[in-house]
Amino acid sequence: MGIKTIYKNKVIVFAIILFILLTNTVKSQIISKIILLVNGLPIIETDFQERSKYIKFVNPNAERDVISRAALKELVDEAIMKSEAEKIGLSYSDEQIIITLDDTLKAQGASYEEYADQLTEAGVDPKTIIDQRKSRKLWQDYIGRKYVRLANVTLEDIDKYRNSLLERELFHIQTMTLSNENIDPMELMDLVNDIENNFQSCSQNLFSYKDKTNIDIQDRIDISIDEIEEPFNTMIRYNLNTFLFPPQADMEQIKIYINCTPKKSLTNKVIENILIADQLDNYSTKILRDIIQDSNIEYKNK
């Protein structure tokens, strides 16, 4: 065996020994950074530091101990969320989460790239928010898959929700009362048709019919649904997006009701989905709390 061969073998042996030593050193450093175990899953110091920086970024006035408690709670919650979701085969890549984040931020006039730049400038690793959103998305899907069958929404629930929305709304209502005194019935019907066919706006009505002595116009602004009389009250509850409503006639007069500020009306299906989401959110809170109580959470020295 030549000198060169011996030298080469020594170099190889030295390299192997160095690699083993470095690997053991890295492993030792990683182990030393573990601050807690959640059902055997490690949360390391780096995770804690990055989450703390992100919370500080979002809540710059928060005190240090508040941030620390919040960071630990979020990391524990998310470790369990991710673990439970993965048990039933759910998963998302970072790229999928970034696309979802980007869509959300674009709806607010920003983008993921811009937000990531802001985080980086503030010393926060953008991976932090990706990990956070991934865990929460996995948990949302987990709850939906396992518990949506338990959600129960009735028509009574839907009506109650719709009424609660209506009670917070303010309306601009115009009532045109056409008297049948001193006017030919056919002329009265022509006047009704003229109002219906040529309607432009409530303000235009006030101008166009101000000189009609047999028309009384009530223009009420910012009134609640409970201040609207029947039958218009019931009609508007189920036809929020309607301007003109069918004339209501009796022996002495004809009334035309106008909703001057039509509003978008939620369908029963949309309201049902909202209420199901609320129920699942309640399930989510309870189930996560129960799993945490049954979990083995072992805190290490930080």
| CATH topology descriptor of the largest domain | Triger factor/SurA peptide-binding fold
* Main beta sheet: 4 strands, antiparallel
Strand order of the largest sheet: 4-3-6-5
Number of helices: 11
CATH architecture of the largest domain: Orthogonal Bundle
Question: Class of the largest domain in CATH?
Answer: Mainly Alpha
Percent of residues in β-strands: 5-15%
- Rg of Cα set: 34 Å
What is the number of beta strands? 7
Distance between the termini: 54 Å
What's the overall average pLDDT, rounded? 86
Strand and helix order: HEEHHHHHHEHHEHEEHE
* Low-pLDDT sequence parts: 13-32
The total domain count is 4
Structural shape:
elongated
Content-based structural category:
alpha+beta
Helix content: 55-70%
CATH-defined superfamily of the largest domain: Porin chaperone SurA, peptide-binding domain
